[in-house]
Every structure is written in structure tokens, then in C-alpha cells.
Specification:
It is a single chain. With 256 residues, the protein is an alpha+beta fold. It has 3 helices and 12 strands. The chain folds into 2 domains: 66 residues, no CATH class; 117 residues, Cupredoxins -  blue copper proteins (Immunoglobulin-like), CATH 2.60.40.420. The strands form 4 sheets. It has a 5-stranded mixed beta sheet with strand order 5-4-3-7-10. Strands 6-12-11 form a 3-stranded mixed beta sheet. The chain has a two-stranded antiparallel ribbon with strand order 1-2. A hairpin with an 8-residue loop joins strand 8 and strand 9. Helix 1 runs antiparallel to helix 2. It is elongated and about 120 Å long.
């Protein structure tokens, strides 16, 4: 994992702390065992004997381990608390969209999971499939839902994974601190094609994000107009065909 958000950065640090703590314990135990074997092993001219600890040794060892565990416990609380805290939009983030100020509020995006694709709905009617585009240094509140089964949205570099559950609204709040593309994939079995149910998050500048929203809106409008033209043309053709049929029927009646 390469963290690019405050929450994932804290979790990544906590993982490394846990790794080094476990490494220290394993090394200390093995060094103690090898030291005891070397010191008290049998050999020529001597017989191995039972080890007798010095008075108070058990209490010193227990106290050391208890202190070590207490330090890990406190660090876990601190880093977990920081990871769960809500990241706020910075001065370099998105402060307004389409002329309307966010005024410290998060940018709300709706993510809908379905077999087997993600759809993202942005403010003002824009939407995209598969790829989520967000502005850098901006607090994002993503609301998730599912149309069929449980889907898990997971982009480890940016946010903790979260489930999209049918009939239930869930959410995740995060902030991307660097521009670029970040990749995720489904983490819950949702059917035969869950493995290729992937997503990409493209983090762009606030200016580029506003351009993207306008481009999506123009594309949606153009698509709707094209669909309306096709439907209108289809109706005209059907009316013309019905008119031709009526004229033929009238002509046949007059000839009789």
C-alpha cells in the first residue's frame, strides 16, 4: 500500500509499528533461547543442569512486556483515532463548483454498485462509469448503494474499503493528497464476474475537475438530444407508414 490520504497514511504507519514490534519480540525471544542454550548446555566434563532464575527476574520480564504492550496500545489508539478523524478540504482544494461555494462542506458523490460495474453520480447531474474523478486536497463524502448484491468498494491507497449493501446507505469520507490514478478492485464475492469488477480513481486539480464536470454535462446533453432526434424520426416514419396504409385502404375501397 502506498498511502495518498491522511487516513491511509495513519493506518500504514500503524502497520509498520506493529511489524517492527512483532520483529522485536521474535528476535528477543530467540536471542534469549540461544543464550540459555549456550550458557547451560551440556559438554565434556560438565553436566547440563536445570536453570534457576534470579529472584525478581520474572517480575522484571513481566514488567517489561507489560510496558511494551501498553506503549503499543496507546500508539494504536492514537493512530486509529487520527485515521478515523474527518479530513477537511485544504486551501488548495475545491472551494466551489459551477459557481456555488462549498463553504467547508464535503463534495458529495454517489457510487452505485451493480453486477458488475460502478456508476458515479456527481453534483448537477453529471455521471461516469468505472472511473471516479475527484479534485485533490478536497474532502470527499462518497455515499454507496447497491442495486443487487453486496459489493465492496476498495481503493487501499486512498480510503478504507466499504460495502455497498442493497437497501442500505453507507458512506466513506476521505481526501486525496496527490494527483494521479489509483486502482481498486472488488473485495467481496458478488457473482461470477466479481474479479474483473475494478475501479480507477483519477485525482486531478480543482480546475480540471470543474472542466470534467462540464464535459460530462455536455456529453450527457448531446446524448439526450441525439436520442430525442432518433425517437422523433422514428415516430415520423411510423406516422408516414400508417398514412400510406390508410391511403391504400381508401383507394381499394373506391375501386370496388
Amino acid at each position: 500500500m502506498t498511502p495518498h490520504s491522511p487516513g491511509t497514511g495513519q493506518i500504514n504507519t500503524l502497520i509498520w509499528i506493529g511489524f517492527f514490534a512483532a520483529l522485536i519480540v521474535v528476535v528477543a525471544i530467540n536471542l534469549g533461547l540461544f543464550g540459555a542454550l549456550r550458557r547451560f548446555r551440556g559438554g565434556r566434563g560438565r553436566t547440563a543442569h536445570a536453570v534457576q532464575g534470579k529472584p525478581g527476574l520474572q517480575f522484571r520480564v513481566a514488567g517489561t512486556l507489560a510496558g511494551f504492550a501498553l506503549v503499543l496500545f496507546v500508539l494504536g489508539i492514537i493512530f486509529t483515532g487520527n485515521a478515523l478523524s474527518t479530513p477537511k478540504t485544504t486551501a488548495a482544494g475545491l472551494t466551489s463548483l459551477n459557481g456555488e461555494k462549498l463553504e467547508g462542506e464535503p463534495l458529495v458523490i454517489k457510487a452505485t454498485g451493480q453486477q458488475w460495474l460502478w456508476r458515479y453520480n456527481y453534483p448537477n447531474g453529471a455521471f461516469s462509469y468505472w472511473k471516479l474523478v475527484i479534485p485533490v486536497d478536497t474532502e470527499i463524502e462518497m455515499k454507496l448503494e447497491s442495486t443487487d448484491v453486496v459489493h465492496t468498494w476498495s481503493v487501499p491507497d486512498l480510503a478504507p474499503k466499504v460495502d455497498a449493501v442493497p437497501g442500505k446507505d453507507t458512506q466513506v469520507i476521505f481526501r486525496a493528497d496527490a494527483e494521479g490514478e489509483f486502482y481498486g478492485q472488488s473485495a467481496t464475492l458478488s457473482g461470477q464476474a466479481y474479479a474483473p469488477m475494478r475501479t480507477t480513481v483519477e485525482v486531478v486539480s480543482p480546475q480540471r475537475f470543474e472542466e470534467f464536470i462540464k464535459e460530462q454535462q455536455r456529453g450527457i446533453k448531446a446524448g439526450q438530444e441525439a436520442a430525442e432526434r432518433i425517437e422523433t424520426q422514428k415516430l415520423k416514419e411510423e406516422e408516414a407508414a400508417e398514412g400510406g396504409s390508410s391511403e391504400e385502404s381508401t383507394s381499394e375501397g373506391e375501386s370496388e
